[in-house]
Amino acid sequence: MSRFFSYRYETLVPYTPGEQPKIMNVTKLNTNENPFPPSEKALRFAREHIRPLNLYPEIQCIDVRERLAELHGIDADNIVLGNGSDELLNFAFMAFCDDRKQVAFPNISYGFYPVYADLNHIPALEIPLRKDFSIAPEDYYDLGRTVFIANPNAPTGMALTRAQVEGIVKRNRDSVVVVDEAYVDFGGESCIPLIRDYENLLVIQTFSKSRSLAGGRLGFAAGDKALIADMNTIKYSVNPYNINSMTLALGLGVLLDEETTRANCFTIMENRAYTADALEKLGFTVLPSASNFLFARSDKIGGGELYRSLKARGVLIRHFDRDGIRDWNRITVGTREQMDILLKNIRELLEETP
Asked: β-strand 27-28 against 315-316: which pairing, if any?
């Protein structure tokens, strides 16, 4: 770091994103992207409805918000859009956490939570998962802290039921509970219907996974109108024009083609079951997943060794070199062809392993 870097961030450890190789002749299963592109219907709509690029984007993002509100049976004022769900998560840390209202989240979860806590100087309580990697809802009761939970969780892929999340919300009436639903469309239960009943619930979703817009950077938060007003106070204080015109047009186009989104999710869930079954037959332990990835380990080859060996063969998966999950790898569920390439290479590696 330079000698000009603020002392407030001297110890900040930034988030480490998954590898994004420049070459495309790899089987890329490391960053939970959707293997299917946006539909031609969505792309055509975006081309026909994009706002002139010499003008600023539409600041209130009303068309996208109204379509999301229609899909979820809520009001447009219950929704705020972000430059990906990551921006909204940071807005939530800024809006609902401080030295008086501290934060809690699982100790094995999305890697941005501790980064945002450190970035915003918020003392954090990291709550251990159960031995089976599940979240124990009762561990989050009556904490007196803002709670962040990824549901389904990452990198495990395991999900709480809506009723379990509701229990956490009920037992933290004086604190905001933020539910990060990045992967909910692959088998989880969304908690958006609960925002009508709980003023302290904020649900965040992304277009990056089920809606194939990881490169578009679009997310949304749904909650009580007062919570959304708080989020907008942060947004308008940081970057009012946070969603570009191309992303707004494409986001609306995707929302108008829910049939393709649902079909792609169904295919990914089929491929997930196929891959999990094949890995288990190879002796892997695979956690039950409600996401577009699998969390798996083998007694025959270490997590780091498997990651490095597959990378050498042109197959990228995600390995986390940290206590508790060092033997595990997170594997994005792609097309059937991609999963067969993965499985073929794993079989060959296991045959070569003494």
From this structure: parallel
Q: Which residues contact 274 (CB under 8 A, 6 or more apart)?
A: 336, 339
What is residue 23's predicted lDDT score, i.e. its pLDDT? 65
Residue 55 C-beta-side C-alpha neighbours within 13 Å: 7
Query: For the domain 40-257, what is the CATH code?
Result: 3.40.640.10
**Which residue type does 94 have?**
M
The amino acid sitting at 111 is: G
Percentage of the chain with pLDDT > 90? 92
Distance of CA 252 to the CA centre of its chain: 20
* pLDDT top residue among 81 and 23: 81
- The verdict on pTM exceeding 0.70 is yes
H-helix or E-strand containing 116? helix 112-119
221 beta partners: 80, 204
Q: Would you kindly state where each structural domain of the chain is located, as residue ranges?
A: 8-36+259-352, 40-257
pLDDT digits (tens, 9 = 90+) for 180-209: 999 999 999 999 999 999 999 999 999 999
Distance between CA atoms of residues 163 and 194, nearest Å: 10
CA pair distance 296, 21, nearest whole angstrom: 23
- CATH 3.90.1150.10 matches 8-36+259-352: yes
Q: Which amino acid is at 327?
A: D
Do domains 8-36+259-352 and 40-257 share one topology? The answer is no
Rounded Cα distance, 329 and 301, in Å? 11
Amino acid sitting at position 91: F
The average pLDDT across 298-306 equals: 96
Residue 125 pairs in a beta bridge with: 104
φ/ψ of residue 297, rounded to 5 = -145, 155
Task: Give tens-digit pLDDT for 144-180.
Answer: 999 999 999 999 999 999 999 999 999 999 999 999 9
**DSSP one-letter code for 228:** H
**What would the DSSP string read from start to end of 147-191?**
EEEESS-TTT-----HHHHHHHHHTTTTS-EEEE-TTGGGT----
